[in-house]
Amino acid sequence: MTLVQVVALAALAAAARFSGSLERPAVRTWILCLSSALVLFLLQPVTGVRQLDYWLPLGTLLMCAAVWFITRPAAQGLAREDTVTATAVAALCIAVSLTRYLAPELRFSTGRAPPSEIVALVLAIFAGLMALTLRHKGRDLGSLPAVLAVLALFILLKTDALATLAGSAVRGLTGQDTTLASSSDLRWLGFSYIAFRLLHALFEFRNGKMPALTLREFLAWVIFFPALVAGPIDRAARFSQDLRAPLAPADADLRAGIGRIASGLAKKFVVADSLALFCLNEMNAAQVNSTVWLWILLYAYALRLYLDFSGYTDLAIGIGNLFGVRLPENFNAPYLKPNLTQFWNSWHMSLAQWFRAHFFNPATRALRASPRNLPPALIILITQLATMLLIGAWHGLSAGFLIWGFWHGAGLFVHNRWAEWMRPRMAALAPTPRTAHVLQVAGAVLTFHYVALGWVWFAIASPQLSWSVMLRLWALA
Amino acid sequence: MTTNPTVQLQRAGARTLARLLLKTGVLFLILNLVFAWSNPLPALGRISAYNNLLPGRTRLPYGENPARAYNLSLYSLPAMLASHELAAAPVPVPASEFRVIVIGDSSVWGYLLPSADTLTAQLNRSNTTMPDGRLLRAYNLGYPVMSLTKDLLLLDMARSFTPDLVVWCVTLESFPTDKQLFPPLLQNNPDAVRALAARYALRTAVDDARFVQRDFLARTLLGQRRNLADLLRLQLYAPLWAATAIDQEIPETYVRRMEDLPADLTFAGFTPGTLTQQDLAFDVLAAGFEAARPAELLLVNEPMFVSAGANSNLRYNFFYPRWAYDQYRSWLADAARENNWRYVDWWDAVAAAEFTDSAVHMSPAGTGQLANKLAAAIIAAAASPH
Asked: What are the beta bridge partners of residue B137?
């Protein structure tokens, strides 16, 4: 998001809050649902494929509607409220497509939207399919295929070669030059976060824990615009509580919200964007030979990444506050943590919690219950490595991200074993508070450097170049 | 008056927001007024990480692709100079140093040349010793636009660094009077150019329409945000300059200078017989000699590509028809003789194969040839001052 977009959206949130229109939960949900749907279209980046900047946000809305359909309470029919919401969102989509006839600066989609009759036809076909499933009221309408479909789409978009192939196919469909296809053809606004919210809904539904949400509440949760670009990944149950609860005093929300927005703007647009000019990247990694300078660029990258990401989180939480929604924290001074386990409890917390809830814990339980009676250390190794590899893959299915995931998985395992080994010895040593403080600081320094070295794999797509940087960082090449 | 607590809280929130907006607005307004009134940009431009925390640049900031060149073009002359290694050069000049400042166009700046292969870099690498034992130390104040007035402006800035000799590399393309204010660097520094014009009685029109005149709004913080951001970006590229010594994106391939030329006899809108000496900025050239004093100035008619392709009987290269360039050389030689200027004409001193993408940009080897000739000319100048 640009600075102007952030300020405009924050102003929109403040105006809505102080117009008094958010007082009634129903109206608040309407505003959040429709404004987020509109922002989906407004913020979607232009892609190399004609009209895809309209179809991708529409695809997001249809995916959300389909998953909501699947995850509704099984015996429930279609309430009038949901029909009204579906009609309103469909009308909004058609209205956005109608702006194709306006001057580019007045359009609500970044490019020229497709003809409205085609949009209407697509919406009608989707509505027809959903209506057909109503006959099977009371049955799981396909949560497992939906999980697989979202995962397949996720893998497609996150794998460079597959995304390019898909881009080529879409270009073929629209009669565009397929030789120009690239993975950026399918730049889908917020898909990583939207997909994980949808997967969360599907998993919770399969576990019987998904709260009953109206379509409006569901959409407001999944596409809540402040959290569209960089999270956090909120849970449905927590988010819906906020939607239904009376608003906190506006004064308190305003103070908290404006403070977070100001902090986010400074972090993201002043410091992080400045550091971006000279932090480690693919190009300068190949040009810098000095060990000292490589460390400086790496520190700059580590700081930039944190400030950029946590700045976006501050903006999301701040704008959320203005709407009376308390998004979860995503960062808690991660670079000051004395060990890697605590680092991962304070870095991109909502993603880590998502993986903990939906992969790590179930996988650990399954391995513990395994008749093979695996040793605990092996279970920890398998689950931590697998979890971190998946977190790496979430950023992109490339060697660099997977090695970064392995780096952290291995680090977490080593720390786990070290902590187990040290626990009785530390108890016996009974260190003084001063010694404990020194150990904490030493641990924080060591952890930060381990994390920073991990960023080398993250920042540079080519593992060969990353390895060369690693060697140069230690003056070994 | 309502007693509904929700409404009261709502109103309290609205009041807080209104107060916040009012305070922010007033503060913003005051800041803008103070900025417009005090014009702190030149002072801010002098605050530099270069030469203080990190090494200075060996040539002036100029960049078409900042993200890849770690360099950018900006209009702040104080910031440009503060980022240059010359800004850290000791004054007075140490007894062991023979200080030479080289000014000129992109061929001096070193277009398509790494910073280690520019004319001044090769001069410095030659470790040339003057007859009195001093070591030649050359500074590159070339800038990649063609205008003698731009060269004069930079020379004027460099005077305070008390060079022993100024080398001014020129070519006809920098001479047309109506091209003098073409560079945006000049258009955006109208006061400095007007001061030059007044000091040296130049023919530059003080009210030229190309000068960028900033109204009050354009002088506020809001109006100057782009220039302010440029100052910051220049500082932020300092670490990568220090770490890589890269200050220009040099593509692996580029379009070579044109060998086969159009059958066109015009130069800058002039046809044979219409160009007069008044159409060329000899007044600026004379001002340069005056500005360099007490240092001597060595004027160099810089080497250029001489084509042997189609229509080379009409033109030397893409820039020049033969008639215009021959006339220019003749006038330049006459002016040097009449004014007793130290002048060398090296128009064909470098082989055609050593020119890269234009008629004046040379390869490292071509630049090396020029550096060797220049070193000898500098020694000669030092041995027999005018």
From this structure: B99
